[in-house]
Amino acid sequence: MLDSVKAIVEDPERVRNRRHQLVTAAIALFNRQGFYSTTVKDIAREAGFSAGLVYQYVGDKHDVLFLALQKIVETNKERIPIALSDLSDPMERLVCAIDAYCRVLAANGDAVLLTYRETKSLKKEHKERLKRLERETNAMISACLAECEAKGYLTIEKIELLTYHIVAVAHAWALKHWRLREITTLDEYIRLNVHSAWQACLTAQGKRHYAKLQTKASRKPARAAPRRDRVARPAASALRAQLHRGGRRRRGA
Q: Residue 144 and residue 132: Cα distance in Å, rounded?
């Protein structure tokens, strides 16, 4: 992230920390009063330091907007590989990749809303970089889908199209959170709305394998993730939750 926006300060850790403050303040202000109505002084005041200091870490307000929107895709690029790091089964990897993606969006709902409202305000070069980062993140989900198809678990006509279906439904949690939070939970939303996209493509072999994973998940005792991974990696616990709940729903149907 540091090389995409130039800073005068040379200490990477200091730049990272200051920019985090700026991004947090900017997301709140941009959502509340709009990008063009927000000044650098407003952002500095919200972040708790002087306007002059802002220019030590970014060139202008457009840089701050880009960093705010880049936050989600950069976080997903970090979290999805962590979620998959100790998994080898293609279907387990798919479930956990999607789960990790959804939880990053849910944890950064304000930034998701800002993406839809203010992407048009980005500089051209920032728009192009954001598109590239999005494609790279989506490719992680596409790769998991391709692994499942190669194993004979899924039949997919267009992998990238299915990936965008999954991504669009995942984004809807933040976009329509005002209502969704009243009728469901995040776990249930991921299971019933997001995972259902790829489950519609299950082959007979895939359904049998998925059933085996559900049985395995229902028998495995819950284990708390290491403290450092509780946010970054829902992997085993999320997999167990999604598969086990899906199994109980089918058995009880």
A: 19
Q: Which residues contact 145 (CB under 8 A, 6 or more apart)?
A: 94, 154, 156, 159, 162, 163, 198
Q: Which residues contact 131 (CB under 8 A, 6 or more apart)?
A: none
Cα–Cα distance for residue pair 134/245, rounded to 1 Å: 30
Angle (CA) 51-109-222 rounded to 5° is: 125
In angstroms and rounded to an integer, the radius of gyration of the C-alpha atoms of the chain is 20
What is the three-class DSSP state of 200?
Answer: coil
pTM (2 d.p.): 0.85
Which amino acid is residue 62, in one-letter code? Answer: H
In the prediction, which pLDDT does 218 show? 80
Taking the alpha carbons at both ends of the chain, their separation in whole angstroms is 47
Distance CA 29, CA 34 (A): 7
Whether 114 contacts 68, CB under 8 Å: yes
Who's near 146: CB < 8 A, 6+ residues apart?
159
The string of pLDDT tens digits covering residues 73-99 is 999 999 999 999 999 999 999 999 999
Q: Is the pLDDT of residue 35 over 60?
A: yes
CA distance 200 to 212: 17
With beta carbons less than 8 A apart as the criterion, state whether 134 and 151 touch: no
**163 in Cβ contact with 137 (< 8 Å):** no
CA–CA distance, 65 with 39 (Å, rounded to integer): 12
